[in-house]
Write a structure and sequence with these properties.
By secondary structure, the protein is α/β, with parallel strands linked by helices. It contains 40 helices and 59 strands. The strands form nine sheets. It has a 32-stranded mixed β-sheet. Helix 30 links the parallel strand 19 and strand 20. Helix 14 runs parallel beside helix 16 and helix 22 packs across helix 26. The N terminus is likely disordered.
């Protein structure tokens, strides 16, 4: 059989069997030879093909010679090193083999290979090619590491040889013979010239290199490198043999239409499936009837009167369910009918807590991660949607069994007090509709033929009305029959067809064999597969790699491109790799494999069916572990991802529970993988420590790994990856935190990753993250993705010449942070902030930084302030800005705190003609600003603190900011008409002498684009008319200080385009009226908040005019002490939900009048309104006129909706004694009341909390704060829903009863000096936080609750006994000021404690020591989880305690209350704390020296000494090698001097009395 037949897929070729005997490469070659022929001859019947093979051979021989010459360039860095070790020929051969791989694979590219044997062997050949690259990477890794070792070597003789000293091992491969030219053997079957017998593994040895010696040294550590040698030989031999066989099979294959179209469109330019509510479709075809039907069901009068109802859209994948839901969601009638519209993408994993958090995020912009219980989440959501009609879209639901989860989600929407709430669900499963008991359903079918044809022509020709040629129309409609009206299939296949309008090509699509694989009429996978096969091969590889990511993943282009580059999926000789990869991504978007999540966003998503396609086409070399079901890994697997989202559902409080079945499956599957071949390992989602330990123990063969991404739940990488330095080929490392973590500690071993190109530690790590000291050894690092503050911490960054991001560089006097470090960093892109420029020593230093060579920078920020913007003083004596001239193409420039005149390149010799933004701040000696003619493209000018500038000229600006220019008198405009069209932001503040501004334009309000106006000055803008200003449609944010009419006027745009207005007056300006014209504009119909503050003389407010504010939700008045003196009708719009009055003169019946018209009132706050003397509740309309003078009442219509009530009076107010209820049911009438705060007003609450039946509280109450109650006993009866209780400053209180508070989670009692009894605490089964402060009469406290996580007992001087039995969940404990405490029960229960602070409570320490001694004898432990200990008793340093503190990381001891010395026993105990990372000793005034064995604290990273003035020297044995930071405050001069003298040698970050030495 000829090879052409094999390629076409016919004939009797035998399939290759799995590799035997360990899967050797030789075995693979033998199988390939048997299946495809031995390659020695060409069948006579394929003479033409035989000629092609001969021609290709000749071409390949020429290529081989070129390859040998090109190899010289490729090995230019390896060659000097390899020649010294005798492996120059071997390195050259390995590079040559790489080129052969490329030639063969290039021959395969573009061919549709259907022969199973050939396709499989090509995949194996591609894997061999990748391994060849790994081997080169390993050799180069050793070279780089040896060079780094040589840099620190001081022996000049050794440096001349460019070799390490005799103590270092060097890779030497002895080979008896090597050829330098690659030849393809002839038909006689001879081997390649570089595959000779002499190059066998037997002839190749690895010897340690010893300087000036030819005698091999013995070193068993070289065994791994010996493995490299053997693998190089095996790979080279197999490469030659396999290449010949594959070439003979590939050459006869004719290029079909697939190859033609792919080659034609190799890099076409362009014009997961987490869904969103944003429409990304330009037009939706064929769904008008379905859309109208759904909208009618959602918005009809009948539906508006119904309880919560559910509508379900059911349809197969890709039919357009999400698109239809999107259209409905964004319909104007729907948005008008539903004040609250929420969109949540659910997918296969239904997590009710996560869904509620997403809903809250949409409503408030806050995920409420601080809420740790599902009930609290439900209550919060219920509060947010209270009295609002809600439409909730749940897209892509699969859950059809767990009813309790569904009920948890529905509860807040069923109890929000409004009819007509709707849920619109999309799903593929008909069972979902039955499960959720939907009120109606829409069965979505494929589009009808006419609509489908319009969609198809739009996709293919860009115009739905395009006149398609008859032949194409006939074929196209036949293709559409196969697509069954599926829009996703039409869009995908349309991307292919639009690239070639040849009927023959369309016919090949119609007759493609893929259609035979369809499983049913609705299976669109064949159409998607055809689209995939017509992708260019480089795009196929990039796309298929995405199968590793979870479904519904959000793809960020830069991150994905960096991963592709790390895997060598992107290559280029003359164009930056990131640009080429970006074009690849752009092309995949154009082909329809990605789509934007939001129209104007940066993230992209992938339809789940497209993701299924990616998994299918990558099934040979990718493997995903995502559940407990066993799945065999493919034998060619190179890329692995672990996805835990389904198996590890994090609890509402963030904890992750152990999943033993998944751990076992993960361990089994991971252990069976051929780790030596792995190139990718990704971990997504929450995990428990068992998974981390499995990775740590099992992940050992990591030489080939190029991409490693970990979503961690721990702060120490060593807890997951123990051998990070073994990842010698690692290119991409991403470490993220599953939740917001304080900091990541990167190990020093990362610095040995010679090939690392990307280090990404951005997600959820704080700016206190610790970087390794030797990070500058990462010479190939291209991207450091982290917080800006961390960029400034890289010492010696000048060695990282490949770096493309350096967001912040902080100049210091130390050479490692000298500005000269920037000299060679010419690959920097985007932006850089260079701060602390005061520490530049000379103009020569500044010039040597070569800022002008950074031609890829678009933004430059030069600052003489510190890294955090602080004013650090100006010590520089030289004008260096002249020597920091940027390149001419700079776009944005900011100069800050420069104390010398402007440089020539910004005054008389301006060359920055591309500049669009100029910020100058605190440049106090600058007198002039560049004029528009010198900066023709300038669109943003921001000038701040420029005291010598007197005049500026502005051109066609979009943003103008003038702040504190005290001498500025004139602001001239070059072209007023242009400015009125272009200006978008205008801010003028504290320019008190400005008298000339473009006032004619401003007064006429012709700024058609202005959307933000801030003016904080008077004279120049004194004629501004606010009502006229509000007529400007574009203006969304206004902030004016325009005395005397108002001190400040603010109008700002909030979330969901909601407007907020604040009007602030002044005590000194007697403003009497606020005119009605201020509120009569259409734009204010969206006003949701109005605040009027500090108008003590105001007597008139246009109450009737406020009725125009139909969307007003919050109304607030502060210090309007005369407004309510007039006898007028007070009325607010009925939409108001929150009402606040502070220090106002509300009298008589005015407040009651306001409340009568507010049926939806949720929040009422009355503070310091002393005219109010009583609180009638629930009177009817005809009763309120009979109220006594000065009283007010909460009307009956407010009772169902009010959720928060606060009444506060100033201390000593005469109203306090008179304030009382006028209704016998008191607070019980408030059926929705959740929060009550009563301050300095004891009477209203006394009867309620004292337990009298006549004053029952509302059952819904969840938060109660009471102060200054005069009762001696508080009985919190009928408060079963109470979650938070605070009792403050109740001077007469002696007892509290909490028997009914079964839902209580947070209890705080403070300042109740006579309190002696807290009863019913054991009934609080959900209590998590307990705080008792200042209860001087309290003698004992029993708080044995297993739910407690935080306990604070402070300033209770007579407390003798504290019982915390069963407090196994306690994490934080604070005991302070309990001097008489003699008994502490339950200390052994504190098995989960993480943070402990003890002060002036010696009894606690005695109890701890006693309990520790007991458990030591019992061989059991507690306190093993303690991480932070802050204590004032040195006796804690004893053997029984310290031997148990195995997790302690931070220890603070204050010696002020003790003798203040360390005994030998103390020192021995201290050295047991091997996990300690931060030690602080305070006020040890008698301590003369630190422990001699102090250096034994091998994990210590930070050491702080405060007020230890008798210590004069460092420890005898020195400091721990791990120490990074040292802070001295109030210590001796001798110790300070010693540390300052030695900190550089130790590479310490040192602080002495606040001064930094780094």
């Amino acid at each position: 059989m000829d090879t052409a037949t094999l390629v076409a897929g016919g004939g009797g070729g035998r399939e290759l069997q799995p590799r035997a005997s360990g899967g050797s490469i030789e075995g693979e070659v033998e199988q390939l030879s048997t299946a495809l022929g031995d390659g020695k001859s060409v069948p006579t019947e394929a003479e033409g093909n035989g000629i092609k093979i001969v021609q290709l051979r000749r071409l390949l021989e020429e290529e081989g010679r070129d390859v040998a010459s090109r190899a010289d360039a490729l090995v230019s860095e390896l060659q000097p090193w390899s020649s010294g070790g005798g492996i120059e020929g071997k390195v050259r051969q390995l590079h040559t083999a790489q080129e052969v791989f490329k030639l063969v694979l290039a021959e395969a590219e573009g061919k549709q290979i259907e022969n199973v044997e050939l396709a499989r062997s090509l995949k194996k050949f591609r894997q061999m090619a990748s391994r060849a690259g790994d081997l080169v990477g390993e050799l180069e890794h050793y070279r780089i590491q040896e060079e780094l070792e040589q840099e620190g070597h001081e022996d000049d003789d050794h440096e001349k040889d460019s070799r390490v000293d005799g103590s270092q091992s060097r890779l030497i491969l002895e080979n008896t013979e090597s050829a330098e030219v690659f030849q393809v053997g002839q038909d006689t079957g001879e081997d390649c010239a570089f595959c000779t017998e002499d190059s066998s593994s037997a002839a190749l040895q690895i010897l340690p290199y010893v300087a000036n010696s030819t005698v091999p040294a013995s070193n068993t550590s070289l065994e791994p490198r010996l493995g490299i040698s053997r693998e190089i030989n095996e790979l080279i031999q197999a490469c030659c043999k396999m290449a010949k066989i594959l070439l003979e099979a590939l050459v006869p294959a004719k290029l079909d239409d697939l190859s033609r179209i792919v080659q034609k469109n190799q890099s076409i330019g362009t014009n997961l499936r987490e869904t969103s509510s944003f429409l990304t479709e330009p037009k939706v075809y064929g769904r008008d009837e379905d859309r109208d039907r759904i909208i009618r069901k959602l918005t009809s009068d009948e539906s508006a009167g119904q309880d919560l109802s559910i509508l379900c859209i059911i349809g197969y994948g890709g039919v357009g369910k999400t698109t239809l839901a999107n259209v409905v969601f964004n319909d104007s009638a729907v948005s008008k009918h539903f004040p609250v519209r929420l969109w949540v993408y659910v997918s296969a994993h239904f997590d009710q807590a996560k869904i509620i958090r997403k809903m809250l995020e949409s409503l408030t912009g806050n995920k409420h991660e601080d809420i740790k219980s599902l009930k609290d989440l439900q209550r919060t959501l219920e509060s947010e949607v209270k009295s609002k009609r809600v439409l909730l879209i749940l897209d892509d639901i699969w859950e059809d069994s767990q009813k309790e989860k569904w009920d948890d989600l529905l509860t807040p929407l069923q109890s929000n007090g409004v009819k007509g709430n709707k849920i619109l669900v999309t799903t593929r499963k008909p069972s979902v509709e039955k499960f959720m008991r939907a009120n109606a359903k829409i069965n979505l079918e494929g589009l009808d033929p006419d609509d489908f044809w319009h969609l198809f022509t739009e996709c293919v020709f860009g115009n739905e009305n395009y006149k398609v040629p008859p032949k194409l129309q006939k074929i196209g409609k036949e293709i559409l029959v196969k697509l069954k009206g599926n829009p996703l299939a039409a869009k995908s296949l349309g991307k292919v067809l639009r690239r070639d309008h040849n009927p023959d090509f369309w016919a090949t699509i119609l007759d493609n064999n893929e259609w035979k694989h369809r499983t049913d009429d609705y299976d669109i996978m064949p159409a998607l597969m055809i689209s995939y096969k017509y992708l260019p091969e480089h795009l196929q590889q990039c796309f298929s790699y995405c199968s590793l990511f979870p479904k519904y993943h959000r793809y960020e282009k830069k991150r994905l491109v960096n991963i592709w580059i790390a895997q060598d999926l992107v290559s280029s000789t003359d164009v930056r790799l990131e640009e080429v990869g970006g074009q690849f991504f752009h092309d995949l978007v154009e082909w329809g494999f990605f789509q934007k999540e939001f129209e104007f966003g940066d993230l992209h998503i992938m339809h789940d069916l497209i993701h299924d396609l990616a998994q299918k086409v990558s099934s040979d070399d990718t493997y995903t572990i995502e559940n407990s079901e066993h799945k065999e890994a493919p034998w060619l697997v190179r890329h692995v991802s672990v996805i835990t989202a389904r198996e590890y559902t994090s609890q509402v409080d963030g904890t992750v529970l152990l999943n033993e079945p998944f751990v076992q499956e993960f361990a089994n599957s991971f252990g069976k993988l051929k780790q030596s071949k792995l190139s990718t390992f990704m971990l997504f989602g929450p995990l428990d420590l068992a998974i981390g330990n499995t990775i740590r123990q099992e992940f050992s063969e990591v030489n080939s790994v190029r991409v490693l991404t970990l979503e961690m739940a721990v702060f120490d990488l060593d807890l997951v990856i123990v051998n990070i330095s073994a990842f010698v080929n690692l290119r991409y490392l991403e470490l993220s935190c599953f939740y917001k973590g304080p900091r990541l500690e990167l190990p020093e071993a990362i610095c040995s990753l010679s090939h690392l190109q990307v280090l990404d530690i951005m997600k959820n790590w704080g700016d206190s993250t610790v970087l390794p000291r030797g990070m500058n050894k990462l010479g190939k690092l291209r991207h450091f993705i982290a917080r800006d503050e961390l960029h400034a911490k890289i010492a010696g960054v000048g060695k990282m010449v490949s770096l493309q991001e350096l967001k912040t560089f902080c100049v210091r006097k130390a050479s490692e942070f000298s500005i000269i470090q920037l000299k060679r960093l010419n690959q920097l892109r985007e932006s850089i902030r260079i701060c602390n420029l005061k520490d530049v020593g000379s103009q020569e230093e500044a010039a040597e930084a070569r800022i002008c060579d950074k031609v890829h920078l678009t933004t430059l920020h030069l600052s003489w302030s510190g890294v955090n913007g602080q004013n650090v003083g100006f010590s520089s004596n030289c004008s260096i800005l002249e020597d920091l001239q940027p390149h001419a193409g700079l776009v944005n420039l900011k100069i800050e705190a420069y104390r010398y005149p402007s440089p020539s390149w910004l005054s008389n010799n301006i060359h920055l003609t591309s500049l669009r933004s100029l910020h100058l701040d605190n440049c106090k000696k600058w007198c002039t600003i560049p004029e528009p003619k010198h900066l023709p493209l300038l669109r943003e000018l921001d000038l701040r603190h420029m005291p010598r500038v007197r005049e500026i000229v502005i051109g066609r600006l979009e943003i103008l900011v003038l702040y504190y220019l005290p001498c500025l008198r004139r602001c001239a405009v070059l072209n007023e008409e242009q400015l009125s069209e272009s200006l978008q932001v205008l801010k003028v503040e504290n320019c008190d002498r400005l008298v000339e501004f473009p006032l004619p334009v401003l007064q006429d309000f012709q700024f058609t684009s202005l959307h933000r106006l801030v003016v904080h000055m008077y004279f120049c803008f004194r004629h501004t008319n606010i009502p006229q200003l509000l007529r400007m449609d574009s203006l969304k944010h206004v902030d004016l200080w325009l005395q005397p009419s108002c001190q400040e006027f603010q109008l700002r745009l909030g979330p969901s385009n909601a407007l907020r207005m604040q009007i602030i007056g002044s005590h000194s300006q007697p403003v009497l009226r606020i005119e009605e014209s201020l509120f009569g504009f259409d734009k204010l119909k969206n006003l949701v908040e109005l605040e009027i503050t500090t108008y003590p003389h105001l007597t008139y407010l246009p109450w009737e005019g406020l009725q125009h504010l139909t969307s007003l939700k919050r109304f607030k008045m502060i210090v309007c002490s005369k407004l309510f003196s007039n006898n007028v009708e007070f009325i607010l719009p009925p939409s108001v939900e929150e009402l606040e009055f502070h220090s106002c003169n509300i009298t008589e019946q005015h407040l009651s009048q306001l409340l009568l018209n507010l049926p939806s009132l949720k929040k009422l706050v009355i503070t310091n309104c002393e005219e109010v003397t009583s609180l009638p509740v629930g009177l009817f309309t005809d009763e309120h006129s009979q109220m006594p003078e000065g009283s007010w009442h909460i009307a009956s219509n407010c009772l169902p909706s009010l959720e928060r009530l606060q009444i506060t009076f100033p201390e000593g107010s005469s109203v306090i004694a008179a304030m009382h209820f006028s209704n016998r049911k008191g607070f019980g009438r408030f059926v929705s009341l959740r929060e009550v705060i009563i301050e300095n007003c004891p009477t209203p609450l006394s009867t309620m909390v004292s337990g009298r039946a006549s004053k029952v509280p509302p059952p819904s109450l969840v938060k109660l704060i009471v102060t200054d109650i005069e009762d001696s006993c508080l009985q919190f009866s009928q408060l079963s829903c109470l979650v938070e209780l605070q009792v403050l400053r109740c001077s007469s209180l002696t007892s509290v009863n909490l028997d009914s508070c079964t839902a209580l989670q947070d209890l705080k009692i403070e300042g109740c000096k006579l309190l002696s009894s807290i009863e019913g605490l054991q009934s609080c089964k959900t209590l998590r936080h307990l705080s008792i402060h200042g209860s001087e009469a309290l003698l004992s406290l029993g708080a044995s609750l297993s739910t407690l996580t935080t306990v604070s007992i402070e300033k209770n001087p007579n407390l003798a006994c504290l019982d915390l039995h069963t407090c196994t969940a306690l994490q934080k404990l604070r005991i302070e000021g309990c001097a008489t405490m003699a008994s502490f029960e339950g200390i052994k229960s504190l098995v989960g404690l993480k943070e402990l602070r003890v002060e002036n409570s010696p009894g606690f320490i005695r109890s701890w020591i006693s309990a520790a001694a007991e458990v030591e004898s019992e061989d059991s432990y507690f306190m093993g989880t303690l991480q932070v200990l802050d204590i004032d008793d040195i006796s804690v340093l004893c053997m029984p305690i310290c031997c148990q503190l195995t997790s302690l990381k931070t220890l603070t001891i204050d010696g002020a209350r003790t003798v203040g010395v360390l005994t030998d026993d103390h020192e021995k105990a201290l050295l047991l704390l091997t996990s300690l990372r931060h030690l602080e000793l305070n006020n040890f005034k008698h301590l003369r020296s630190l422990p001699a064995e102090f250096q034994s604290l091998a994990s210590l990273e930070r050491f702080t000494l405060v007020n230890c003035e008798r210590i004069t020297s460092l420890p005898v044995g020195g400091l721990p090698a791990s120490l990074k930071d040292m802070d001295l405050k109030g210590c001796s001069k001798e110790l300070n001097a010693s540390c300052i003298e030695n900190y550089q040698a130790r590479r310490l970050h040192l602080w002495v009395d606040g001064t930094a030495y780094e």
